[in-house]
Amino acid sequence: MSPERYQRIRDVLEKRQTDLTVCLENVHKPHNVSAIVRTCDAVGIHRVHTVWEKKYQFRRGTAMGSQQWVRQTNHDGINDAMAELKGQGMQVLVTHLSDTAVDFRDVDYTKPTAILFGQEKYGATDEAKALADQDIVIPMMGMVQSLNVSVAAALVLYEAQRQRTIAGMYNTQQLPEEECQALAFQNGYP
Ligand code: SAM
Hints:
This protein has about 190 residues and is of the alpha/beta class. Helix content is about 35%, strand content about 15%. The mean pLDDT is about 90.
């Protein structure tokens, strides 16, 4: 690997936000998963969480295929995913068009945060909504009721990136140095 390539990878890894993540619940269309993971990479997310219930499990190991720069943890069910995220001290926000939802721009994303996005047609499951700490919504002023899930993810994640940039959170390395070095030498994530 050239020194320039190594430095480029290091620069990216040093900005990775280990306390910001997304959880994709039954988001199963490959182009959506791919677009969301690409946005995750762009805002510095290190790991994404996925939950695919039985009928979508054909996505395991395929939808993430080309995304070598963002790590993935797949969970057997939404309860496991929520338990792990909350166990890491994350506030879990579910993107959901409800009366109790707050505008996504009124949330503090400098806190350890996991943002859950739901299935393309049906949205987040009732279990996810019940377990989450807060519903968030992207205000809609038009005739259609919702955005494409990857568009919704981009909007929310870029608000998180904006807030974290202002707070200087990209200036402090969050990934442990050992992991950073190992990943840089692998020239990509396994
Ligand atoms: N009928 C579904 C519902 O009520 O949730 C719509 C699902 S929407 C097409 C798919 C996913 O995109 C949602 O689960 C959510 O993650 C995200 N999404 C789309 N538009 C949104 C909005 N305006 N506010 C928040 N999340 C949105």
